[in-house]
Predict the structure.
Amino acid sequence: MKKFLLCILLLVLPLPAYGSPAEPAPVAAEIPFRPDTAYLADRQALDRLQRDAFRYIWEDGCPVSGMAYESVGAGDFTPVTTGGTGFGIAAIVVATDRGWITREQALARLQTITAFLRDKTARKQYHGAFPHWIDGKTGATIPFGKNDTGADIVETALLMQGLLIARAYFNGPGVEETLRSVITELWEGIDWDWFTNGENSGLYWHWNPDTGFSHGLRILGYNEGFIAYILALSSPTNPVSSSAYDYWTSDKSYQPKELYGYTVAASLPGGGPLFVSQYPFIGLDPRRMADPFVPGGYFTRNVKHTLSNRGYCLYNAPSRNRYSPALWGLTASQIKGGYAANEPSRDSGTIAPTAALSSMPYTPHYSMQVLENLDGPLRENVWGKNGPYDAFSLRDNWFSNSYLAIDQLTMVGMVENYRSGLLWNLLMQDKDVRIGLQVAGITDPQLEEGFPEAVVTLVRKGKGYVADAYDIRRHPDTGLFMIPYWAEDEGEVRFTFHAAGGDEIRSVTETAAKGRNVLTFPQFMPPDGAVLTLTMHKNGKTYSLPVRLH
């Protein structure tokens, strides 16, 4: 049971300078600090963001197939998108759980989507897989590019991620059982092993009945193809072998990289767009994933990747790009005159709101700073019916007025994972997925005692970087601060907060379980920007973390 030892400052009035001895001066206790309700503004902003973005599929989806259009507001060319629909299905689960739509409404839409996928598409010709783009009326394949005219196994995986989440969520009888049956039929119908081309050494991204594997693009880590390998290993009917997964991890991009002061495991040379830390983790819970390549865990990896992207924007990008703590985040998006996979090594001066906002589980305070800016001073230029538009550039005075499914719908799911962990919990309970993770050698992290997941932000100093603080704000739904920590074994842990001058201002004691724990506590002082030292005391050992409470 937690014990909160509140400091009470005593004010003693001095004796009069003359006259008869006075009575002992009264002792006045300082009025206890009462937490404010500022965190409720965060809750309202996140509600607004999620609900607006959800409209992308719910109100502006294809009326025939029920699927998500590739884009909304960008013109008459409107194929439906396979991966984006996977994100949309996850968003429908979120909307159901939050009560924005009824369970019956959700089931009706999901029945439409799954029936269309089963009966209208070319999946049987494609060994159970789906193309990137589909005609939402007929089910015919629409070429995504010159060499992408058939099955796309990564888009298929992103779709199945959403469907498996829905299968886990809608666990009741009747119509829900029927939905699960159709999803299982689609899931078990994918011949993942076919996409190794008989070589058993990696998945091929594309296949076409006419040209086969002539495109020759094998999926090599690290990128969003991670989800394809996990699901390919998870298949109960046509899985790939562990040797195929070995190909995925064989590239130098699975080695750590130094990115703007952060050591990022399994990283592309320049870090890559932020979507690689988001798309596979709509359902995969990075807090429960570590392997020999990412021993510190995929959650910490994703946090550092996000912080490095932000660090580039703040300290290394050209000043004319006009990035700031309230405007950062590079990922694939529309740009002026086209589309690009923006990243630090390929910076077009374009901000995609989804970059920072879909990073909410990793950098909640910094992501909220961006949301406050988009939903505040910039709202008139960057926000529409379905939430923030896809992208904009202050440098070029260019603002998109349309949306992309893969950017808009990702925000619904990733924000929900920050708020409740709903989608993470659903996919990680799937027995097939658990088997796939096991075959991949991915296990729960076993981290050192202390604060290994609380990554301290770095700031630029001269030509290098120095540690600043772990910036956190209260959770929007509980009003509590939350800091993850690890314990080597079960037992009592004491936490102390010290001001910069060394004075102890708060102490908390609780019983920790072995492994991952979360320290939660209410606001106990005004958010004055001061850096406090949080110290964990356990079995005679101490571990310290500089924190800034917002």
Confidence is low (pLDDT under 50) at residues 1-28. DSSP finds 14 helices and 27 strands in the chain. The chain has two domains: 1-32+448-550, 39-439. The CA atoms of residues 213 and 371 lie 43 Å apart.
